[in-house]
Write a structure and sequence with these properties.
Number of helices: 19
Number of strands: 19
Shape: globular
CATH architecture of the largest domain: 3-Layer(aba) Sandwich
Helix content: 25-40%
Strand order of the largest sheet: 5-6-9-7-8
CATH class of the largest domain: Alpha Beta
Number of domains: 4
Largest sheet: 5 strands, mixed
Strand content: 15-25%
Structural class: alpha/beta
Length: 548
């Protein structure tokens, strides 16, 4: 086993003016999906002192802002963006002024740029993906065909009669940015200007987010389509609707090209009863299926009541007492890492010791520590799977017969018993204690019990017991997914109907199984000619809010 040394990359530096002079970056945050931020945008956010943005834009960019960045409140009239930008820049701060879409197309930041130029404050512009371009792409509506159709962009909020007449008289594709309540009026303008009422049209709300919804219509039927779909105005009113009009806009083929809204768990709110650190890769996987993961810790990790046993084991590891160390969880890796740091040790202390990890997530935590595991189960990612690959003790080839096993105070004895049977001596050490976490916020508890979540993933029996204990039993419309038979049995004992079970005890396979369930549910609805809906929309009294 060779510890891996991973150098940390230096932070990028933003352009700056003279000493003590501020700098402003006008940054396009894209239409709503945080994944559409450019690399340059992420760099600028990582070194910003002040972040000026409306609340809905902050939700997109704040993940990439450095800790401690100042994000002043913009809800009052005295806190106008231009004033906040200039005040911070005059004070020598690095300012990021973030806006939806692209700064040059979707916002009126030109005046703010002129103000910077007038005072000699250096600034730069980081383009973003404009809503008029990004939203149709996510809606499955290519704007050009093989023949290169003409494309016109119209902002219905400022369009003149001359503008409507020009685009109405052409046969190209028209992309209209418009408030939801004005969609029908915009369609009427185009018909009055010469477009045929049967011209295909798509209407997309909340584009590029997991709240996105798109409807196919024509200029003549759009009012009826939106009425039947019970589309309600946006609560925040910030993002415009994007409508695409034209015979050559691929609107007729949208069902085949709708890659985003057809994801198997699109828009599903999925409860993940794990800490944010534990759930990171699982949540990323769920997002790839179109879901909106919500992490709720059900356990808290605390140090052992008597740390002497752990201290002796770590010292023994350094002095050559062990042939192997086996990690059965990310928390075990964290506990040993913290003890190493306490003693001034690093990954080099594992030199000459074989390292085992119970599964992919634990192995990833070790790699992050700088340690590459020698043994990860080739099959089932569990203590049983680890034992199947663990070599028996051989006194000829193994100079030491002892294994260091740092783990939780409530861990099962499967691994200890199996290692002893293979001829190894085991130092079974309590590295951390698990206790029930504090209850989640009231709105989360209400969503759990009231059917506000579409699914919940249970990764162990303890997550079932603890979630029910701190938040209550999930509503019966919520899809219950369990990692294995033991977890499913516990769920059923708590009165829950188990809908999905992983084919093997792996969080990756559990998420895959839920995605397959969602895909099957979606296909059944389409074959039955029904509207595809989320489980939470089926609960009694649920309001079908198509735009949130």
């Amino acid at each position: 086993m060779n510890p891996a040394i991973v150098p940390s990359a230096p932070l990028p530096s933003a352009p700056a003016g003279a000493a003590g002079q501020g700098h402003v970056t006008f940054l396009g945050a894209g239409p709503g999906d945080p994944g559409l931020l450019t690399l340059r945008a992420v760099e600028a956010l990582s070194v910003a002192d002040v972040l000026v943005a409306e609340e809905h834009v902050l939700d997109v960019v704040r993940t990439h802002a450095r800790a401690g960045v100042d994000a002043p409140d913009m809800t009052s009239a005295e806190s106008a963006a231009a004033h906040l930008v200039m005040q911070a820049a005059r004070g020598g701060k690095r300012v990021v002024r973030a806006v939806s879409g692209d700064p040059g197309l979707d916002s009126a930041t030109g005046e703010e740029m002129l103000a910077c130029a007038a005072e000699g404050i250096p600034f730069e512009v980081v383009p973003g993906i404009a809503a008029a371009v990004g939203v149709p792409a996510y809606a499955g509506v290519p704007l050009r065909d093989a023949e290169g159709a003409d494309v016109r962009f119209v902002d219905a909020r400022t369009a003149s009669e001359t503008c409507w007449a020009e685009v109405g008289g052409s046969d190209g594709t028209v992309v209209v940015s418009v408030a939801l309540e004005s969609v029908v009026a915009a369609a009427s303008e185009l018909v009055s200007a010469g477009r045929k009422p049967d011209t295909p049209m798509t209407v997309t709300v909340a584009g590029t987010t997991t709240r996105q919804r798109t409807w196919n219509a024509t200029l003549g039927t759009v009012a009826q389509v939106l009425k039947q779909a019970k589309v309600l105005p946006s609560v925040d009113g910030q993002q415009p609707v994007i409508a695409v009009v034209g015979e050559r806009s691929a609107a007729a083929r949208r069902e085949q090209l709708s890659w985003f809204e057809s994801k198997p768990l699109f828009g599903w709110r999925v409860l993940v009863p794990r800490t944010k650190e534990q759930a990171a890769s699982l949540s990323d996987q769920l997002r790839s299926y179109g879901a909106v993961p919500h992490e709720v810790p059900t356990i808290a990790v605390e140090p052992p009541r008597t740390p002497q046993q752990m201290e002796r084991a770590v010292k023994g590891l350094v002095t050559g007492r062990y042939e192997w160390i086996a990690f059965t969880s990310v928390n075990a890796v964290k506990a040993v890492r913290e003890k190493f740091e306490e003693y001034g040790l690093d990954a080099r202390a594992f030199a000459g010791i074989k390292v085992a990890a119970v599964g992919e997530q634990t192995a990833a935590a070790l790699v992050d520590f700088g340690v590459k595991p020698d043994l990860v189960p080739s099959g089932e990612q569990s203590a049983r799977g680890l034992l199947e690959d663990w070599p028996p003790y051989d006194p000829v080839f193994d100079p030491i017969d002892r294994v260091f096993l740092p783990r939780a105070d409530i861990a099962t004895e499967t691994l200890v018993a199996g290692l002893i049977e293979l001829g190894w001596e085991v130092d079974d050490v309590t590295a951390y204690r698990t206790v029930r976490a504090s209850p989640p916020p009231a709105d989360t508890r209400e969503a759990i019990k009231g059917g506000g979540f579409d699914a919940v993933l249970f990764t162990s029996s303890s997550t079932v017991r603890n979630l029910v204990g701190i938040a209550g039993k999930p509503h019966n419309v919520t899809v219950i997914a369990c990692i294995g038979p033991a977890t499913a049995k516990t769920a059923e004992e708590h009165g829950l109907r188990v809908d999905v079970m992983a084919p093997e005890p792996s969080v990756t396979r559990l998420a895959e199984a839920l995605a397959e369930f969602g895909a099957g549910r979606r296909l059944a609805a389409l074959e039955a000619g029904e509207v595809v809906s989320r489980p939470s929309e089926k609960r009694p009294g649920a309001r079908r809010r198509r735009t949130v």
